[in-house]
Fold this protein.
Amino acid sequence: MNKAPGLAPETKKRLTLFAGRLRAARKARGWTQERLATVAGLGVSTVRAVEHGEPTPAMGSYLAILWALDLDSAVDLLVPPDLSNGGSGSPSIDTNF
């Protein structure tokens, strides 16, 4: 059986930190996991998995939670607007790692 390699320790650390921040944002709003799941259009088990820093939930689940918590605009900070259009000015991706 071909087993995929685990996440790097630094990645696990960041995922745990991110999960904690999402949980804190939910609690700051006074929301239960059930309410967040309803607003985000997800199952409660998915919200729990995200809040526990599990690597298996889909990226769309994370984005749905960010949207439900009104934190999705922070995603725009990841890529400057002049690079996000995918035009000819996009940098090449280095795949030598």
